[in-house]
Write a structure and sequence with these properties.
553 residues, alpha+beta, 4-stranded mixed beta sheet, 14 helices, globular, disordered N terminus
């Protein structure tokens, strides 16, 4: 399946840092060697290498391992470069320093003696005759725009390339795919590092030529993979006995092609645990989504091939989330479309479908029961979002499905600039912005400038003393960090919104906030089905309820 590339909007001097939105794969990223904002990344230290001096020989396997190290460490993009303490990655194994951008990733993976650019990488590499000549560890370079590391083809026809790239501020180093047509249309050329070594003997077979169910390994590594539909799924030691794999029948294959095997099955593949069990799953975006019994036949899954997969691989796939930016619909039917952000399915309106570039992304059918659950999912607290279309250039942080605005001064000072930024449908975002932070949410100032802890009640941030924090049992609740400017405004509200239910430790009386800041006592008769809900009562310090005038009508 194809992946989203990233579109960078220009920073506004003295105002809020501009948002980075996720767009369709058809747009080439802005050049990742170019300084585009005052963004600062996290300085980190890598540890993977072969111990050789930078600029020496490196094997293809080591190239892929080194790039994967950046993926595993979520190395963020930074435009600041080697002159900034926040713009480069130190490789402790080689002593090399590499910029945290697209060409810095390739320079690091090739273990070069310096961090080159898309323009200078050809100085240490050779242009290949065709995309079909690519082997794992080679580079796909559009000299005027972007470079990515090639890790293998998704199929024997070479229709789509697996890649690792560092492509922009809204995502750290990640794996993805580029279609062959996209590469050709956007001027990507295949390059091979001059000091790469370790090609396999030609006598070993191509694993893609072997039938589904074959166990394969490289000549220089003990890892075993199961071939299914052209992909190689890793088999762990714990899978061998329960899954019935005969390790005496493992076939040694071409090293380079073994490491180039895609590790995920094609979207739409139906799988089950080779070790047993009645559960069935469909693969979408590398994740295994459960299929219910009613969906099995009604949604057409029963007529697809049903593949047994290694237990450990399936466990990892069922725990995986769909990549951010994936567009989905109910496999059982319906016109509604959704985009996945932070594991949640956000609705896309009809006007947004084309205008915001969703229509050119792959549209994946998913089980309806899974989709219903994803629609109810809450974006993880701390997720940063911005409008996909750019109509609202503000950046927000999500807390309990409410979007809280981040000011320009807070963007860098409070550490938001080093986090991934997700594009979201603007109609959904407008709803999240308008939604008050849920009652009983406990918050503090993310900057630490204000040490007070607050509890939310009817949109007001109610301050808690140290004694209140413990006595009212808020010390057992999750403590969320909120932008200081937003929190100050919420704390300044004179009273909770009308309709808020309050109780304080001085009395068992439950109070209803009414009349724009007054309180009315409720009785037991006011609660029950169709009446007020005791579960919605917020416990607050006595000082708040005492400050509200009492009314009787």
């Amino acid at each position: 399946m194809s992946m989203s590339t990233l579109r960078i909007r220009t920073a506004v001097v003295g105002a809020l840092v501009a948002a980075t939105a996720v767009s369709g794969l058809m747009a080439v990223p802005a050049h990742a060697d170019t300084v585009v904002s005052s963004y600062q990344s996290v300085t980190s230290t890598g540890s993977l290498g072969n111990g050789a001096a930078p600029g020496g020989t490196v094997t293809r396997h080591q190239v892929i391992q080194r790039a994967q190290d950046w993926v595993d460490n979520n190395v963020p993009y930074s435009p600041n470069g080697l002159n900034s303490p926040y713009g480069w990655w130190a490789d402790s194994a080689t002593g090399g320093r590499y910029r945290q951008d697209c060409s810095g990733l390739v320079s690091m993976a090739w273990q070069l003696s310096s961090s080159l650019t898309t323009w200078t990488l050809p100085d240490v590499s050779t242009l290949l005759g065709s995309l079909d000549d690519l082997q794992p560890g080679d580079a796909l370079n559009n000299i005027n725009k972007h470079v990515a590391l090639f890790t293998g083809w998704t199929d024997a026809s070479h229709t789509s390339a697996n890649i690792i790239e560092e492509s922009g501020r809204s995502a750290p180093t990640h794996v993805g795919q580029y279609s062959r047509s996209y590469l050709q249309a956007n001027g990507f050329k295949p390059y091979r590092y001059n000091n790469v070594a370790g090609s396999s003997p030609t006598s070993y077979p191509d694993p893609a030529s072997l039938p589904t169910g074959t166990l394969v390994k490289a000549s220089n590594d003990p890892t075993v993979k199961l071939m299914i539909s052209g992909a190689g799924l890793a088999v762990s030691g714990s899978d061998v006995t329960p899954d019935g794999y005969d390790m005496s029948k493992v076939v040694t294959v071409d090293d380079a092609k073994f490491w180039a095997l895609p590790s995920s099955l094609p979207a739409g593949t139906v799988v089950h645990d080779q070790g047993g069990g009645a559960n069935r799953y469909v693969i979408v975006g590398g994740a295994a989504l459960p299929i219910t019994g009613s969906e099995w036949t009604a949604d057409g899954y029963s007529i697809r091939p049903d593949m047994g997969v290694p237990t450990s691989w399936l466990n990892a796939a069922t725990a995986a989330s769909l990549p951010a930016g994936t567009v989905v619909h109910d496999q059982g039917g319906g016109a509604n479309r959704y985009v996945i952000v932070g594991g949640a399915a956000l609705p896309i309106t009809g006007s947004e479908w084309t205008a915001d570039g969703y229509s050119i992304r792959p549209d994946m059918g998913v089980p309806g029961a899974w989709l219903a659950s994803a629609q109810q999912a809450v974006l993880p607290t701390g997720t940063l979002v911005t409008g996909q279309s750019g109509g609202d250039p503000s950046i927000y942080v999500m807390i309990n499905n409410s979007a809280l605005p981040i000011t320009g001064s807070e963007w860098t000072a409070d550490g938001y600039a080093g986090q991934a930024l997700m594009g979201a449908p603007e109609a959904w975002l407008a709803t999240a912005v308008a939604k008050p932070l849920a009652d009983r949410t406990v918050v503090k100032d993310v900057s630490g400038a204000n040490a007070t802890v607050y509890v939310m009640a009817g949109g007001k941030a109610v301050p808690l003393s140290g004694a209140d924090y413990t006595a009212l049992h808020y010390d057992t609740a999750p403590l969320a960090s909120a932008p200081g400017t937003w929190l100050a405004a919420a704390a300044a509200k004179p009273a909770p919104a009308d309709g808020t239910l309050l109780v304080s430790p001085d009395s068992a009386t439950v109070w209803l906030v009414t009349g724009h800041g007054s309180k009315k006592a409720l009785t037991a008769a006011d609660f029950g089905p169709g009446k007020y809900d005791l579960a919605k009562v917020v416990t607050v310090p006595t000082a708040l309820t005492a400050s509200l005038p009492t009314v009787t009508s």
